[in-house]
Amino acid sequence: MKIGELAKRSGLTAHTIRYYEKIGLLPDAGRDHAGHRDYDVSALVWIEFLGRLKTTGMPIRQMLRYAELRRQGPATQAQRQRLLEQHRDAVREHLSELTSCLDVLDTKIAGYAGRDRNED
C-alpha cells in the first residue's frame, strides 16, 4: 500500500510515517517500480502496536529500543519480553494512581449531589 493509504488506515499523517522511518521506529518501506514507498500489511500491524505503546505512555526512546531489538531478530526475544513486562508494570502502577484519583473525584461529585438534595 502507498503511504497515503497507510496514513489513512493507521490514523497517522504521511509526515509522521516518514519521521518514524527516519528515526528507525518503522522499518524502511520497500519501493515500487517508480520509487514510491510500498508498505505491506505488517507495517499497519506494527503501527497499531506502536500506537498502543504510545497510548500507555511508553517513552519514544523505549519504543526505539524495542524496535531495534525487534530488528535484531529472535535472539532478542527475552530482552523484548523484559522491556514489555517493565512497561506493563509501569502501566499497572499508573492505573492504580488513576483509580485513586477517580475515587476522589467520585467522592467530591457525590458530595455536591448530596448538597443539592439537602438544599431542596
The portion of residues forming beta strands comes to under 5%
Structural class: mainly alpha
Order of helices and strands: HHEEHHH
Share of helical residues: over 70%
Kindly summarize this structure in a few lines.
With about 120 residues, the protein is mainly alpha-helical. Helices cover about 75% and strands about 5% of the residues.
Question: What structural keywords apply?
Answer:
2 strands; two-stranded antiparallel sheet; mainly alpha; 120 residues
Could you walk me through the main structural features you see in this protein, from its secondary elements to its overall organization?
A hairpin with a 5-residue loop joins strand 1 and strand 2. With about 120 residues, the chain is mainly alpha-helical. Helix content is about 75%, strand content about 5%. The model has no long low-confidence stretch (mean pLDDT about 95). The radius of gyration is 21 Å and the shape is elongated. The chain has five helices and two strands.
Secondary-structure topology with pairs:
Elements: H1 3-10, H2 14-23, E1 30-31, E2 37-38, H3 41-55, H4 60-72, H5 77-119
Antiparallel strand pairs: 1-2
